[in-house]
Amino acid sequence: MSEANHPTLCQTIPIYNYLLDIIEDFIDQKKPSEDVVIAANNAKEKLLRYYPTSDGLVYIISTILDPKNKMEYYTKMGLMIIYIEIYKKQITELWKKNYMPAQITINPPNTSNVLVNHIYKKRKFVQSDELDNYLNSPPANIETNTLLYWKLHEKESLNLAKMARDYLAVPGILIFWVIGLN
C-alpha cells in the first residue's frame, strides 16, 4: 500500500475484511493445532479492535466514494441493512452539511415574448443532487482508476468530486502503521 499511486484509505475496510476472511477460513479449513488457533484468534481480535466502525466515518466515506465500491460494497459483503442505512445517512448528512451546494431557484425567463413566457412559466427547474445521482448509478468497473474517474466526472459532480478529493487523499498506510505500534 505504501507505494500505491492511487487512493488507499478506500481500501482499508476491504483489506480488513479480506484479512478477517483469511483468518476465519484458515481456522475452519486447516484444523490447526490449538496453539495456531490461539495465535489466529489473537490476530483476529487485534484486527477487530482496530476495525473501522461507524465511528470511523473517514473509512466509510472513502469506501463509498471509491466508484468501484459505492454502497454496493457493503451490500455484497452481507452487512446488515441497518448498518447500510446508517452509512448512507452518515454520508448524506456530511454531504448536506459540508459539500452540497445551496439550492438555486432558477426563475423562468421573463421576456416580452408571450409564447416563451407561457412555455417556461409551468416548467420547474430542479437541480439534481450529485450524491444521489452517484449512489444511484452502478459501480464502476473494477479496473477503473479512482482518481481519473473523479477527474472525468468533475464537471457534472463538482462538489462531490471535491468531497472525494478530501477523503480519498488520506493515505490508508497510516492506519496500518498505527496498528503495528500497538
Automatic annotation (TrEMBL):
GO MF annotation terms: protein dimerization activity
Domain named HAT C-terminal dimerisation: residues: 130-171
Cross-referenced InterPro entries: HATC_C_dom
Protein name: HAT C-terminal dimerisation domain-containing protein
